[in-house]
Structure formats: structure tokens, C-alpha cells
Amino acid sequence: MQKRLDQGYAALERIADSSPDLLKSLLEGSPDTVSVSDARLPDLPLTYVNPSFTKTTGYSADEVLGRNCRFLQGEDTDRDDVAKIRQAIEARQPVDVVLLNYRKSGEPFINSLRMAPIFDKSGQLSAYLGIQRDITEERLQAERNIGQNRLEALGTASGALAHQLNNLLHPVTSLISLHLPDIEDPGIRKDLEMAHYSANQAADLSDNLLGLSRGSFQDSSDVTTLPAGLIRAVDLVRLMLPPTITIETSFRNISGELNVPINETLFAQVLINIITNASQATKHSGKIRIEVAEHDSSRVKISISDNGPGIPPSLREKVFSPFYSKSHSKNSSGLGLPVALQIINKVDGQIIVEDGLIQPNGDGFGCMFIIDIPNIT
């Protein structure tokens, strides 16, 4: 890598010697951010940033020149990533790293950084060249693709299971229905009625899973019908969570079927991302309640509440920032909630965070995510 960089520097030197204006034009017009830090001064202060740097970070050149570029770091920047940069500087070696940085506004972005030392003609270290690229949208798209692929795979597997389950349940329900009218013993009759009810419940679950595998994952429709679409999605989510998580659903003030402008695959992905977050918050042993209400004829509100530790009001907007949870849970990508918000925002919806269910110890409230989304006719 260093050999290729040296060859590149040599080419830049030739351009600088023969045509300084051309080199300036290349740097000023680069879509990637370019920065130069002086290695001869204490703390490697910035001595040059190109226009892409100021556009990406929100800082003007006057605000950053003379400062070490660590001002782009924040509380959720991974310390291991920072250590890689520090070690490369100490070893005078190039380094490639992807880390979380922050714009002047406080908005986080995912920065793909390549940094390399520059040596003068006498072999002395003179500067460090940094080339950065904002890859936030690329990471979000990758997370969306992973979520959709996971749903498709689970839907296919669930469909196969549902088909086999239906084949087994059909004779059970049919035989009970056939012989139940002839049973005179009240105790036996009650037991058979309970068995019949349970078998029908299992059949309904099977039909929901089969509907997901046959419909939403191949259907290009951009509408999910409630409550049926939500019930199918929740049944799918239950397969992904430990049995220690209790999920309750409630539908109130609903005049009939509701149609939200989002296909079932994306709708299920939103629910999975939020419910998985709730499950992690309760340490996989709490209660989650999902309530659907028709706000008016044009809007639907879907609230997802848990009885976990809750989120302080000062942090409620921050949970939608990419990689926010990275420093708190190594099992989380930190992109689930940002992806959910992006999906909902694209259909003129919003997600609001409020207090949720009362905590088991009664000392406070968990968290509630409210999805406010259009109801189309």
C-alpha cells in the first residue's frame, strides 16, 4: 500500500512542480474530503482542507485550520477505531478505518478514512494526508438489504413450516368437529372444545405465516392492510424472540380495515427493528404491548410499548442516529431504529418516542414508540 501511495505522491509532486494550478483544481474539485496535517508541529494541526471537507463537516476552513481533526469525534466514536489511527501515526504507516464522526450541527455520519504519511525528499516525515468519504447512506442501504433478505428467508422457511402444519391440523380440527356433537359428558365435551379452539388458533397462526411467504415477499403492492398485516408481522416477530418476551396486541377505535401506504415486507421490517430494540431493552424478559388506533379518517397510530428502563427525554431523538447503540451493545448494529425511521418518513409518517409501560419495580416507565402513518382509502 505504501509503495502505491509513494507513486501517487510522486505524481502529485510532478503536477505541483509543472502546474500548481492543476493540482489545486484537482484538490478543490474532489468529491472526497481532503485534509493535510503538519507532522512537524505538535498535535498534527490541520493546514489544509478542501471544499468537500467543509461541505461534509459543516465547519469552515477558518474554524478547523490549526486544530487537530479529533474535533470530529464524539461520545459514540469507537475508541478502538481511534486507537488504530493513533497506532498508525506512531508507526508512521498508512491506515484505513471506518469510524463515527460528527458534523458541526452534531449530526453523526459514518466516515471512511484513509490516512497516510508524506515524507519530503530527504526522507523526513512532513505531513499526513487524509482522504475521507461519507458512507452513511451506503451503510443504511446495506442494513435495509440485510433486513429484507432476512425477512424473505424467514418468510420462505415459515411458509414451508406452515404448509406442513396445516396438513397436520386439518384432520385434527375436522375429526373434533365431526364427533363433538355426539359427546354427552360435559367434562369431555369441555376438553374437546378447548382442544378444538387451540387447534384453530394454531391454524390461524399457520395461515398468517403462509400469507407472509406467499404474499408480501413477492407482492409489489405498496399497501399493508390492518389489522391483518400487523397480525402477520407480529406472528413473524414472535418466531425471532425468546419465549420469555410477552407480546400483546390491541385494536381500538377502528371502524374497519385500515390501509397504510407501505408494503408488508417493509412494514414487518419496521416492527421487527422496533420490537427487537424493546426486547433488548427489557433484557429479553419483559412485556411488549402493540396498540393500533385510528387517529382520524386519514391517520393511523401504532404504539409499541415496553416495560424496560425507558429512554430519558434528552436522548429520545438521539436513538435514531446511526450507530448510536454501538458503544452500548456489541450485538446491535445501531442502524435498526434509523432504518425504521427512514422507511416511515418516506411515506409521510413519523415515529415519536414517549413513556411506555410501568416498570416491574414500579419506579418508572419503559419506552413507547408511536408510528404515525397515513391511512389511505
UniProtKB/TrEMBL annotation:
<dbReference type="InterPro" id="IPR000700">
    <property type="entry name" value="PAS-assoc_C"/>
</dbReference>
<dbReference type="InterPro" id="IPR036097">
    <property type="entry name" value="HisK_dim/P_sf"/>
</dbReference>
<keyword id="KW-0285">Flavoprotein</keyword>
<keyword id="KW-0288">FMN</keyword>
<dbReference type="Pfam" id="PF02518">
    <property type="entry name" value="HATPase_c"/>
</dbReference>
<dbReference type="InterPro" id="IPR001610">
    <property type="entry name" value="PAC"/>
</dbReference>
<protein>
    <recommendedName>
        <fullName>histidine kinase</fullName>
        <ecNumber>2.7.13.3</ecNumber>
    </recommendedName>
</protein>
<feature type="domain" description="Histidine kinase">
    <location>
        <begin position="160"/>
        <end position="377"/>
    </location>
</feature>
<dbReference type="InterPro" id="IPR004358">
    <property type="entry name" value="Sig_transdc_His_kin-like_C"/>
</dbReference>
<dbReference type="InterPro" id="IPR035965">
    <property type="entry name" value="PAS-like_dom_sf"/>
</dbReference>
<dbReference type="GO" id="GO:0000155">
    <property type="term" value="F:phosphorelay sensor kinase activity"/>
</dbReference>
<dbReference type="InterPro" id="IPR000014">
    <property type="entry name" value="PAS"/>
</dbReference>
<dbReference type="InterPro" id="IPR005467">
    <property type="entry name" value="His_kinase_dom"/>
</dbReference>
<keyword id="KW-0157">Chromophore</keyword>
<dbReference type="InterPro" id="IPR003661">
    <property type="entry name" value="HisK_dim/P_dom"/>
</dbReference>
<dbReference type="Pfam" id="PF13426">
    <property type="entry name" value="PAS_9"/>
</dbReference>
<feature type="domain" description="PAS">
    <location>
        <begin position="19"/>
        <end position="92"/>
    </location>
</feature>
<keyword id="KW-0597">Phosphoprotein</keyword>
<dbReference type="InterPro" id="IPR003594">
    <property type="entry name" value="HATPase_dom"/>
</dbReference>
<feature type="domain" description="PAC">
    <location>
        <begin position="93"/>
        <end position="147"/>
    </location>
</feature>
<dbReference type="InterPro" id="IPR036890">
    <property type="entry name" value="HATPase_C_sf"/>
</dbReference>
